[in-house]
Amino acid sequence: MTIQRATFTRPLIAVAMVAASTLCAVAQKAPVPTRVRGTIESVNGDTMQVKSRSGEDVKLHIAPDVKVSGITKISLADIKVGSFVGATTVPGPDGDDNAVEVHVFPENMRGTGEGSRPYDLKPNSSMTNATVSESVVGNDGHTLLVKYKDGEKKVFVPDDTPVVTFVPGEKSDLKAGAKVIAFMKQLPDGSFETNRVSVGRDGLTPPM
Predict the structure, then answer these.
(1) Which top-level group of life is the source organism from (predicted)?
(2) Strands 179-186 and 35-44
(3) Looking at the structure, do residues 113 and 196 belong to the same domain, yes or no?
């Protein structure tokens, strides 16, 4: 009986090793980025070439139904109680959430991506989209209490934090020299397509 058990066990061990190797290979495969931040180098028909902030050249197919939004600068004072905002934060020295940028959504975008999640702008950064329920002005910035459906967060916004909002954009805004954040997906042939682009107005680099 011992010999028979060993005969059946060897194939099972081999299958397990192959499965483990496959899982390891999948885990080691680099994730496909969901957005590229950079400067448009050229637009040729429905193809856009972007130089990313980290120096890579990224070619994107522009989807026929692409949605373009402009990004324009506003002031910290424009953040009001009741505003629906997105705040990119990093842990401060005391463990508090310090904003590195805040974007105020127009009313027709209220509720967009509501919640708090890890974000790829900076190491250990997170993105929180929520409603401002309290704003306290301090000597060197504002402290915002923001609430979303699953919780709340206190965010400190220093005076020099970039604050922006969205304005309507057009496909014609996609031109050489524009600073953009392009959301992208990989197509079956390995190329990349974007159907949503945020463009900085007046030379602005979108801070998010």
Answers:
(1) Bacteria
(2) antiparallel
(3) no
